[in-house]
Every structure is written in structure tokens, then in C-alpha cells.
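Internal tracking record. Fields below are filled automatically when a chain is submitted to the structure queue. Please do not edit lines marked as system-generated. If the sequence contains nonstandard residues, flag them in the REMARKS field before resubmitting.
Queue: standard
Priority: normal
Entity type: single polypeptide chain
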Amino acid sequence: MPESLILDVYDGSGWTGAANRYEGEAYLDKNNRMVCRDFAGFWHDRIDSLKISWKTPDVVKTARGSWVNRLVANPKTRYTVTTEFASGSTTEERKTMSNELTVAMESGFAFGDLSISNAFTYGIESATTTTMSQTTTTAIDIECMNPDNASRIGIWQFKVSTEDGAPALLNAFACRYGDDATKPPACPYTCCMGPGDDCQNCAADCLI
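SYSTEM-GENERATED OUTPUT FOLLOWS
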């Protein structure tokens, strides 16, 4: 069994009757060899229904939203940036990190020292789930308004992660201009108010 899963077995149909729980254990080596389960004794040939679920971490981590600078460049019409999650990780590592981040998101989101109010978190959670389902990086074309013809443009991408987990780089961007090109936007992308595409004006009830 993978270490991130729980198996509940029952001797009756529809998750009824006698029950027992088996939890995945740590991998045996760096090749992710798993501990095998032997259903001997009472449970031999008696399992009629079962449930498989993710193991909740002992410590629920916090999902944190923040902006990461992807590039600062001379003005042009279009830029290409990627969305990705846990690139370079093994399948099992991705599953473990995805499970941790999913559990963390259920507890809410932090942005800096504040929390994002629930009214603005659905879009973030949905976009994060979509990004975590990617198995490869995806190139996204970005267009910036540059209304004042600034000489530099900074492309900022919204990411969601736990304190030590792989970040999910979302399909959510903001453009900053001139001297502000290297300064992050002021609020989560679901809270951005116009005018402009630099995400400096935030909805009043976004951060609490």
C-alpha cells in the first residue's frame, strides 16, 4: 500500500459488518517499494466491500497563496509562462504533496500575515486542483496592457503551497510596470479590482 493511503475493509456489502483499517507505511527504499499486506486469518476471502481514502497528515499544514516573479523584461505584446505542480517529482511524491495541499486548502488560505475570506477562496482552490492534476508543465501566453508605455514589465504568477511542499503555479497572472515591475501585487488574484491588470486595488472584504 502507498504510504499516503488508508484502506478500510468490511465483511458486509455497502460498508457494513465487521471492519478493519490498514494504513500505508513508509516506503522500503528510494525506489518506492511498498509494504505488502497479507489478508490472512479472519479476513482471508471475507472482504465484501472496502473504502480507499487519503491519509490525513498528523499536522495539518496551512495553504498559502503568494505571488512569484516569473520575469522582468522589456515591453512586448506577449509573454509565455508555465503552470506546473511538483515538476521533477515521482508519481508517489506528487500524490503525497497533492494530498497534503488538498487537506491544507480545506482549512483555508493565508496571504502574508492575513487570511483570505471564504468568499474569495473557491476560485483559488479550483485553480489549484486543476494545476495539481497536470502531469506536465503547460505554457500560457500572457498579454500586458502597459497603459503608460513603461520601459520594464514584471510578470507575476500566483502560487499556492504549504510551508514545505511543492508550489502549484496557477494560471493566474498580474503585470507590473516601470519601477514597480519587481514589486509583488497587493492581494490574491481573486480579490483584484480594476482599473488595470496590476492587482493593486483589492476588494474591501478580501483579507481578514
